[in-house]
Amino acid sequence: MKEETEGKSKYSPFSFASMASFWQPEYLVESGWIEHIPFAFWLVENARPKMLVELGAYTGLSYFTFCQTIKNLKIKSKCFAVDTWLGDEQTGFYDPGTYDDVFKYNQDIYGGFSSLIHAPFSNRAYNERICSINFQIHDKRIRLISSRSLWFSI
Ligand SMILES: C[S@@+](CC[C@H](N)C(=O)[O-])C[C@H]1O[C@@H](n2cnc3c(N)ncnc32)[C@H](O)[C@@H]1O
Fold first, then answer.
1. Does a structural domain hold residue 4?
2. Do the domain assignments include residue 111?
């Protein structure tokens, strides 16, 4: 049952929120991910990952939201986005030039700590490049790893 405190419910959809949750994204493109931006700011702020990996970055909306948080909060972190930048059956197949735009924005704004890995998820090369973390990546899950790494997948 809902508890009331001075006329206000102590349960609020915003009880998790921090100042970061209300930041404006500096990079905004059309994406099915858009309504998750406040949560993304909050999550990275609170997890403060030493490493962040996103599987499936597409035009970069979610990924650059993570990167913005890392940069604004001066978190010492290495970030990676892994994608073929070709699309898939769910998203649809798109113009390979999408990668060029994402690459340029990444280099210009987040090049100091963020790298794009233009490869399929199944490619072992990116595992070697990223780190020695020995765990399986599970599709469509966010995994918080004890070594303070955050993995996001589409
Ligand atoms: C739903 S979109 C990602 C949306 C994105 N996070 C955003 O903020 O808009 C999925 C992406 O995953 C990529 N993808 C799907 N399967 C892949 C695979 N096996 N290897 C690499 N990339 C893959 C697609 O190319 C596509 O860009």
1. no
2. yes
Closest-CA residue to 105 (of 78, 67, 151, 55):
67
Q: pLDDT digits over 136-153, tens only?
A: 334 444 444 445 566 666
Range of the domain at 96: 27-153
145 located within any domain: yes
Residue 130: band (very low, low, confident or very high) from pLDDT cuts 50, 70, 90: low
Q: Is the CB of 29 under 6 A from ligand 1?
A: no
Tell me if 33 is assigned to some domain. yes
Which domain CATH number covers 39?
A: 3.40.50
Total-model pTM: 0.83
Q: Is 88 in the pocket of ligand 1 (CB under 6 A)?
A: yes
Beta strands in 29-129 (DSSP E): 51-55, 78-83, 87-88, 92-93, 114-118
Query: Average pLDDT, stretch 45-68?
Result: 92
- N residues, the chain: 154
Query: Of 72, 55, 60, whose CA–CA distance to 21 is shortest?
Result: 72
Ligand 1 pocket mutation pick from 31, 34, 39, 55 by most atoms within 8 angstroms of CB: 55
Number of domains in the chain: 1
